[in-house]
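Data deposition worksheet. Section B asks for the primary sequence of the deposited chain exactly as it was used as input, without tags or linkers unless they were present during the calculation. Section C holds the resulting structure in token form. Section D is free text for depositor observations; keep each observation to a single sentence. Incomplete worksheets are returned to the depositor.
Section A, Depositor: J.P.
Section B:
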Amino acid sequence: MKRTVIIVFITVLLSPIVYSQDTIHHLHVPAKILGGDTIPYIDLNSTIIFPPATEKTRHEQKRYDKFVYNVKIVWPYAKLAAAKLKEFKIVLDTMHQEKEKKAFLKKAEKELENKFGDDIRAMTYSQGKILIKLIYRETGSSSYDIVKELRGHFNAFIWQTLARIFGYDLKTTYDPAGEDQNIEKIVEMIEAGLI
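Section C:
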């Protein structure tokens, strides 16, 4: 009797697990047709795999954390600079008179100064150097070249001279595979949502 009860009990428990062919649920995935064959196709997001972190001393880790902090502070401004530059170029391409272009740039500069001037002035020396590099990364042009294009050779020369007095170089470029690989790694981690 016990044996029968146990067999019935096990059969009742296992019955939902056993399906007939009529109860199989079909899975629908997108597909592509290649050479007459239908092939399942799933578009996966790209993934960046970072090498494992090397052991660091407490001092090195503190310096690295400060560096990450500085890049995270500056990164939105570099993205904004690239977006604004693209926006300005589109508007400037529609203008034909030099006087009109100068008036537009003066107005845009004043608006940006009012909105972001205090934030930019509050940046540390290190953050300023990182910003110059990230602007190059985002725009493909050095800060010097951008000023020269928008404001002319003389203004670019004046700004470069002032920058050099304070230890900056507006002609700085960005080398993601060389000296700026740490910045590149941090930016990629920010974009991937890892930090």
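Section D:
Residues 177 and 184 are 8 Å apart (CA to CA).
The beta strands are 31-34, 37-40.
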